[in-house]
């Protein structure tokens, strides 16, 4: 079921002169939810996609510039419907934040099941490709033509955590997808960039043990620093707000002092 929210807050001082349409996958929780709320505060029109409708509605907070479309990003038919709903309601899609993802199985490559491997790549990589492909079709067809795709990578696109083969491979592959989209979209005014975030304070980071002791390359456990998820969201919006003449190809933002530089 698709649901448009019914209440609208007062416009803020930082509201955009012309509201850009931002589509966010994985919008019901974590970084996606924070981006939705930061974007609505900044005056964006936002399309929220995710598997759990109740979480999307809660994230939208009754804003009339928000449209909730329950979507499984691994299903091309549902993704096609997502973008069709966005265009029918708001006329276009200016920015896709390709954010839906999962950490996947914990274990070395010989310890994880093929089913868990396939499930992780299906969401993190194939789902991102499906959404990017539909965004490209939409942005090519709209007037004025063009737009921007921002892929949520990870610092694991640069250096892995121990026992994270499926997740790490999926995020390394996102880097290749980002560069391919940027190259293929140039003729149509479509830019693509990637944000690689390390240790923002979300549930997935808590599950990895960063607050109580995360596994390090030497086998020890270490409590790692985190930073507020709102700051990660502001960084995504900085990328989204670049003029059409500029693009951030890759941006890394981490908690200060976290074990990333020198990891391993």
Whole-number count of domains: 1
Using DSSP, what is the number of strands?
A: 10
Overall spatial form:
globular
- CATH overall fold name: Rossmann fold
Structural class based on helices, strands and sheet pairing: alpha/beta
How does the major sheet shape up? 8 strands, mixed
- Sequence of secondary-structure elements: EEHEHEHEHEHEHEEHE
Distance between the termini: 46 Å
Major beta sheet, strand line-up: 1-4-3-2-5-6-7-10
Give the DSSP E fraction (strand runs of 2 or more residues). Answer: 15-25%
Low-confidence stretches: 1-17
Percent of residues in helices comes to: 25-40%
Number of H- or I-type helical stretches: 7
Mean pLDDT: 90
CATH architecture classification name: 3-Layer(aba) Sandwich
The named CATH superfamily: NAD(P)-binding Rossmann-like Domain
**CATH class designation:** Alpha Beta
The value of Rg in angstroms is 18 Å
